[in-house]
Amino acid sequence: MNIKRTLKRLIDDTQYVAALEKQNDLLKENLQQEKDNLQKQKEDFRKEKEQKVADEEAQYKKRSRNYLRPIADMQKWLLENYEFRYNVITDVFEYRKKAEAEVHDSEDAIKHDFEIIDKYAINTIAIEVQEAGIFVRDHFVERLIKSKYAQPYHPIRSYINQVRGTWDGKDRIGDFLRRINHSDYCQRMGRIWLRAMVAQMAGYDEKHANSVMLTLVSTTQGMHKSTFLRSLLPNGLRDYYTDDFSLNQKGNAQRKIVEFAIINDDELDKENPKKMPLMKTLMQTMKPSFIGAYKKNFNRLPRSASFTGTSNQRELLTDRSGSRRFLILEPDGMINVDHIEHDQIYAQLLDEVEHGEPYFFSKKDEKEIQEHNQPYYIKTDLERTVASYFRAPEGGEKGEKMTADIILKKLRTMHVKGVQDITLNPFSKILTHLFGKPEHTRDGNLYLLKEVG
């Protein structure tokens, strides 16, 4: 009986243990299933959240596209109908309708009909955009116009590039300079100066500036001196000529040698002699340093300008050592300023510069300029007195060769004021200033002169 009970107890215990193990397995299975369900819920929640974000982004992009579509339409319409550019010299934006881009002027050259973009232009363009069925705020129109879609534009360099390589081989510079006078001096020196002007405009030499002023002198008014100097520039560049120039404000003067192609100092003889060193400094300045209006940084633009001048007085120079900076020409008569072939003249000058013709004055040229400029110095009272008694022969006239000593004795004999106490050496310098260097002979230094009256 004991054995049976024991066996029965063992069997019951075994069944109990098996039941417990089975129950544990079921619990584990239920726990794993709950864990899997929880994980699935988390994954579903994550996917639902991601989908919601994606849907929101899609809706945002859709709304953005709908919001930006008028701006995109405006951009497309403006660029199809207008051209925009940024004038780096004047620091203004310009525009023109594309339909007007190929309008030609009377010389059959493309007319530069770009206009400045001001408030009136902005409003007009904004209204045209609305009339095209595109509704955007005005500031979007202005923002596009004054952006990368306005290409930087240097009008002077642009013109030079336009005529480069177009010269037909016919010389026009000779006839152009003969409008001033027919002298060999005008032909030789004038050609060099004109090449220097074009080289300056083209930025051909970044180390040297056109440091010589072309100066037209005539005691007779109404000779078209200023008009001729203005006509040095073609019609499309006339805005880059100025005779509004003052040495009283250095920064303003430096700004103008960047903003203009020709700076004309009208009535040069009226300039304060004390300001002339500043003038010479400006003529030699290659990279002017100044801060433009409403700007924070110093100027980075290259110089474009060449200097010209006019005078109704023959006596205008004061510094004899600096006279090589002035190429003085006297018109034979009224200067003809009509029918100037600017494109071909500029093309020829540029071709000559690029093929090695001189566009700067040599030491020999400068010496000749200084000798040529002798009659244009402001004379002292004594120099005027001497000039009233003696002059250089003209037009094949015969003169008399005399030493300074003989001339001085003649003046003293006539009791001329101011010559009694002067010594021979300074008197010789006066004669050289007035009449040029003497001829060196065995009999001394001889001046070829003719007595006045």
From TrEMBL:
Residues 163-376 form the Virulence-associated protein E-like domain. Residues 386-448 form the DUF3874 domain. This is Uncharacterized protein. It comes from the Bacteria. Pfam families: DUF3874, VapE-like_dom. Keywords: Coiled coil. Transmembrane segments: none annotated. It comes from Segatella copri. The lineage of its organism: Bacteria, Pseudomonadati, Bacteroidota, Bacteroidia, Bacteroidales. Residues 17-66 form a coiled coil.
